[in-house]
Amino acid sequence: MRFSSSIAASAALFLSGSSALNILMSNDDGFGSANIREFKKQLDAMGHNTIIVAPAVQQSGKGGSSSYTGEANLTGPSEYDLIPAGAPSIGADPHDSSIWYYNGTPAACVFVGLDYVLPRYGNFSTPDLVVAGPNFGTNPGPFLYTLSGTLGATYAAVGRSIPAIAFSASNDETPYTAITNSSNTATYVAQVSAKIVKSFVSNTPKGQAILPLGYGINVNIPPLTDAMHDPPVVKTRLTGNADTDIAVWNATTGTFHYGNLEPPAAGVNTCLNGDCSLPGETYIVEGGEVSVSVFSVDYDAPSNAYTTAVFNKLKGIASNTTASRRRTRRSVNYSHP
Ligand SMILES: *[C@@H]1O[C@H](CO)[C@@H](O)[C@H](O)[C@H]1NC(C)=O
Ligand SMILES: *[C@@H]1O[C@H](CO)[C@@H](O)[C@H](O)[C@H]1NC(C)=O
Ligand SMILES: *[C@@H]1O[C@H](CO)[C@@H](O)[C@H](O)[C@H]1NC(C)=O
Ligand SMILES: *[C@@H]1O[C@H](CO)[C@@H](O)[C@H](O)[C@H]1NC(C)=O
Ligand SMILES: *[C@@H]1O[C@H](CO)[C@@H](O)[C@H](O)[C@H]1NC(C)=O
Ligand SMILES: *[C@@H]1O[C@H](CO)[C@@H](O)[C@H](O)[C@H]1NC(C)=O
């Protein structure tokens, strides 16, 4: 109560300055998705500077594959007919120069954002944060981690040394043009997503990275309703009751379709890294709560007796040290303290 107004004003300035991030946004549902557009509105309202670079058409299920179109121009219209056939394969939304589409996979959109859109057209070049989604449909567990384009965009960014968060929700696919008010599931999932970004930002000192190198976050959001759109947030892990596919043969059609293995497979649910006492995100989202898991893109097995025993099976054919004379590429080795 005794702060002078000038101190209060500069404190407010400092706080707003420290919390304003440059954010690259993407997804796999495309640049016209209601979820990503509502999320952008929320992040912009919080004072962040955002640019979307997202697929021109639906690119779900592409995982982390980075696939660039060989066509200079779109061979068909973009999703929801927002961009006509024949327009360039990369371009800005005619109504908003901070929203870009590209006719490639989600991971490719992140690379095109980092290496083409931001350097040429952005007012920042390296984002402080990449966010992907919120996806239409949840992505819990390691199987969906590898399958989902929303996760693929996220771990592509982490691989490029940029902190990244994937958001996946339970609402149905909706074009942004269908949103007419703020009482709808796309706005609600954007609000939950923005609340999580806000927590990461406000708990990171100014000038520090939002996440350590090599780390990313996977957020899954349960179904939201007008009556319940701010559910509890729970710390989780990727494994634990996570699903994996089986191939179901249909003799009538002569084709396969997928199903979930029951009970869940031990392989995909083995706890090798992280805190094994945390609940699996699959359980938590099924229970109506928001799951937040921390992943890393270091896919090496932990250093323990199992790994030593596995390596020992190479006895006699593999050595412990690298043959440095045969190494032709520059070696980098980043370890956290
Ligand atoms: C792409 O479209 C532009 C006009 O928008 C045209 O000038 C160009 O020739 C097209 N490129 C190809 C490879 O078709
Ligand atoms: C960056 O550009 C966007 C428009 O793309 C604008 O809204 C925003 O204010 C700019 N931010 C800064 C920090 O110049
Ligand atoms: C808000 O929009 C949704 C559709 O997105 C509609 O179902 C609902 O009735 C609208 N609510 C109000 C208060 O206009
Ligand atoms: C196989 O496909 C047919 C035709 O789509 C469908 O009617 C039937 O229910 C399917 N059977 C199974 C076991 O999924
Ligand atoms: C290689 O590593 C294994 C296990 O870490 C150790 O037992 C063995 O002595 C090492 N061999 C050499 C040649 O350093
Ligand atoms: C990488 O760095 C860590 C920690 O500094 C060190 O223990 C390790 O031996 C290094 N690995 C290589 C291959 O240089």
TrEMBL record:
Highest taxon of the lineage: Eukaryota
Coiled-coil region(s): none
Signal sequence segment: 1-20
InterPro entries documented for this protein: SurE, SurE-like_Pase/nucleotidase, SurE-like_sf
Molecular function GO terms recorded: metal ion binding; nucleotidase activity
Signal recorded as keyword: yes
Domain Survival protein SurE-like phosphatase/nucleotidase positions: 23-227
SUPFAM superfamilies listed in its UniProt record: SurE-like (SSF64167)
Keyword terms: Hydrolase, Metal-binding, Signal
PANTHER family given in the database record: 5'-NUCLEOTIDASE SURE, PHOSPHATASE, PUTATIVE (AFU_ORTHOLOGUE AFUA_4G01070)-RELATED
Family membership noted in the UniProt record: Belongs to the SurE nucleotidase family.
UniProt name for this protein: Sure-like protein
Organism expressing this protein natively: Aulographum hederae CBS 113979
